[in-house]
């Protein structure tokens, strides 16, 4: 595990990302040349949970080996999987690299309940989870490829925390910001959070207005993308922008 001190993110930027959809965020990242930021194949497993926005705490699995990964290893409270669950901070998102292998679960209901009780921001895995019925009732954002009953030890060996990983084919570095909604999860590189956050929130607001116009019968031409006349109508509809004195 590597520990690096990172400058704190602006809460206003995190809040702005929370107002933008993953679709909008991927568009903003695309403008800056990033095409591989959305984690394909992951779906929300916790319908009652809030939207997910939080800094990534990473955990890496490699393939299990039969003479090492036996049930007795879980007697050690410092087992990397257990330790990661205890170290994820409030608001942080545990991101697990399962190599896309869902034949055995990457975690289960008890561990996720512990994370929820500690105020974690969510969990993201490119593998599966066990006890999915219980997990679905948690108020913890949970994204995975689905369910599997087999324990993780059958196929996964936890080796590293807080190192760069690949999750669903997307590079995730510790401290990157994970945003999740009904479409899935997007990874925002940490240094780009202050660059795209406000722009994403503004794009979301504009597109909500354009969606309404189209629903009311407006044609795409002049509306989407918005021409000068539509933008003027949008500015008038949303009123004057308040400028903070801070």
Description:
By secondary structure, the protein is an alpha/beta fold. It has two domains: 38-188, 3-Layer(bba) Sandwich (Glucose Oxidase, domain 1), CATH 3.50.30.40; 196-238, no CATH class. It contains seven helices and 13 strands. The protein has helices at 11-18, 22-31, 80-87, 109-117, 132-135, 193-215, 228-238, and strands spanning 38-39, 43-44, 52-63, 93-97, 122-125, 128-129, 142-144, 146-147, 156-161, 165-167, 170-172, 177-181, 184-188. The strands form three sheets. Strands 1, 2, 3, 4, 5, 7, 9, 12 and 13 form a nine-stranded mixed sheet that branches. A two-stranded parallel sheet has the order 6-8. A hairpin with a 2-residue loop joins β10 and β11. α2 (22-31) crosses α6. The longest helix is centred in the C-terminal third of the chain and has 23 residues, at 193-215. It is elongated, with a radius of gyration of 20 Å. The model is unreliable at 241-246 (pLDDT under 50).
In short:
The chain is of the alpha/beta class and 246 residues long.
What is the fold's blueprint, element by element?
Layout: H1 11-18, H2 22-31, E1 38-39, E2 43-44, E3 52-63, H3 80-87, E4 93-97, H4 109-117, E5 122-125, E6 128-129, H5 132-135, E7 142-144, E8 146-147, E9 156-161, E10 165-167, E11 170-172, E12 177-181, E13 184-188, H6 193-215, H7 228-238
Parallel strand pairs: 3-4, 4-5, 5-7, 6-8
Antiparallel strand pairs: 1-13, 2-7, 3-9, 3-12, 10-11, 12-13
Helix pairs in contact: 1-6, 2-6
């Amino acid at each position: 595990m590597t520990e690096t001190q990172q400058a704190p993110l602006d809460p206003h930027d995190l809040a702005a990302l929370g107002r933008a959809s993953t679709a909008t965020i991927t568009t903003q990242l695309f403008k800056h040349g990033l095409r591989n930021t959305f984690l394909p194949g992951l779906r929300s497993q916790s319908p009652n949970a809030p939207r997910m926005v939080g800094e990534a705490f990473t955990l890496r699995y490699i393939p299990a080996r039969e003479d090492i990964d036996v049930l007795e290893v879980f007697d050690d409270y410092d087992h990397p999987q257990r330790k990661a669950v205890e170290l994820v901070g409030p608001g942080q998102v545990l991101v697990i690299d399962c190599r896309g292998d869902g034949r055995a679960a990457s975690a289960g209901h008890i561990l996720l309940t512990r994370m929820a009780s500690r105020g974690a921001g969510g969990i993201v895995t490119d593998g599966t989870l066990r006890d999915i019925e219980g997990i679905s009732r948690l108020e913890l954002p949970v994204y995975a490829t689905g369910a599997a009953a087999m324990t993780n030890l059958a196929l996964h060996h936890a080796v590293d925390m807080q190192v760069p990983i690949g999750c669903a084919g997307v590079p995730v570095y510790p401290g990157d910001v994970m945003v999740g909604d009904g479409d899935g999860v997007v990874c925002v590189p940490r240094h780009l959070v202050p660059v795209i956050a406000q722009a994403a929130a503004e794009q979301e607001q504009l597109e909500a207005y354009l969606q309404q116009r189209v629903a009311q019968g407006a044609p795409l031409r002049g509306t989407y993308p918005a021409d000068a006349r539509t933008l003027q109508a949008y500015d008038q509809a949303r009123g004057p922008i308040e400028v903070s004195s801070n």
